[in-house]
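Hi all, posting the design record for the shared folder.

TITLE: backbone redesign
STEP: 1 of 1
STRUCTURE INPUT:
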């Protein structure tokens, strides 16, 4: 998809949204001061009539700001938070068919979108990059009635995500997921094989593939710096479906090691398919699935790409 340039100084309505409870901010107070610095610079650029700065701390507050963006026709939305905050705001806009320009300042737990768009936490570097006004189209996915930008997963990873509490996420950051991964392996696979099974149909071809876990990715990165597939990109209007077919504890430990080494494609028990449409059903009802690191939807799943991308200034 083509990139283009916009004159950011021409925007009449600009909003900076800061999730002060996101990820690393609890132990790295410098993130807070960085966001405040960005707010001051944007205020000098636009003035109080054109620029607003709001802080959120809960999902409900984030949703309310999303509605505000649509109602006030904010032209440029800057999100200082993680992928979950970004997903929630984008979802509100898409649901109301409003498509502002968006930028992300990485202040969350994992920050996959910011990482792929090469957005750094250094304020000078961040301001310099967005001041150029170069846009990147980001394709969006929809799982049932919920939006995602990077990944949709169901199985072991979504069970881990579901069990991480907001308090653990706030104070332990990525370590919270490591801690819960150990618990899931111990509780669900140590004394018996993984009991959950998924059937996956790709592009409506009528063939149901069997899997013990499923990851649908449309990003270059997964769970931080790792890459599941070759050619993944936020701007590529294609999803990649990773089917993990084995269900023993040793299999999931092997999958984890291969993901960490960026060598997942070497495992013949992992099937990877490009897709535009994915349907997933489970042997139990309402198994939790995760979208961009939040458990916000349950099986059965119908996953597809939206026809229109969202433009990110990055």
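Okay, here is what came back for every position:
SEQUENCE:
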């Amino acid at each position: 998809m083509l990139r283009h340039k916009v004159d950011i100084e021409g925007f009449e309505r600009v909003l900076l949204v800061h999730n002060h409870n996101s990820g690393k901010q609890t132990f790295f107070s410098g993130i807070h001061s960085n966001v405040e610095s960005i707010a001051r610079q944007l205020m000098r650029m636009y003035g109080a009539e054109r620029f607003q700065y709001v802080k959120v701390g809960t999902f409900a507050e984030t949703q309310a700001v999303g509605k505000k963006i649509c109602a006030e026709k904010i032209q440029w939305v800057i999100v200082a938070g993680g992928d979950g905050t970004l997903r929630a705001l984008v979802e509100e806009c898409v649901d109301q068919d409003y498509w502002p320009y968006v930028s992300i300042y990485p202040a969350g737990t994992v920050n996959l979108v910011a990482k792929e768009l090469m957005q750094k936490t250094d304020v000078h570097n961040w301001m310099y990059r967005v001041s150029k006004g170069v846009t990147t189209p980001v394709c969006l996915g929809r799982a049932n009635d919920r939006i995602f930008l990077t990944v949709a997963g169901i199985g072991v990873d979504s069970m881990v995500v579901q069990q991480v509490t907001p308090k653990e996420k706030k104070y332990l950051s990525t370590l919270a997921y490591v801690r819960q991964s150990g618990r899931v392996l111990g509780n669900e696979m140590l004394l018996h094989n993984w009991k959950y099974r998924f059937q996956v149909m790709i592009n409506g071809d009528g063939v149901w593939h069997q899997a013990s876990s499923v990851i649908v990715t449309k990003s270059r990165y997964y769970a931080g710096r790792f890459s599941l597939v070759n050619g993944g990109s936020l701007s590529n209007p294609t999803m990649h479906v990773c089917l993990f077919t084995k269900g023993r504890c040793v299999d999931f430990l092997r999958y984890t090691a291969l993901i960490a080494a960026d060598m997942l494609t070497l495992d013949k028990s992992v099937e990877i398919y490009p897709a535009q449409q994915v349907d997933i059903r489970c042997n139990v009802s309402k198994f939790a699935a995760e979208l961009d690191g939040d458990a916000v939807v349950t099986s059965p799943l119908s996953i597809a790409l939206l026809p229109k991308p969202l433009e990110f200034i990055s």
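COMMENT: The first helix runs from residue 30 to 46.
Let me know if anyone wants the other runs.
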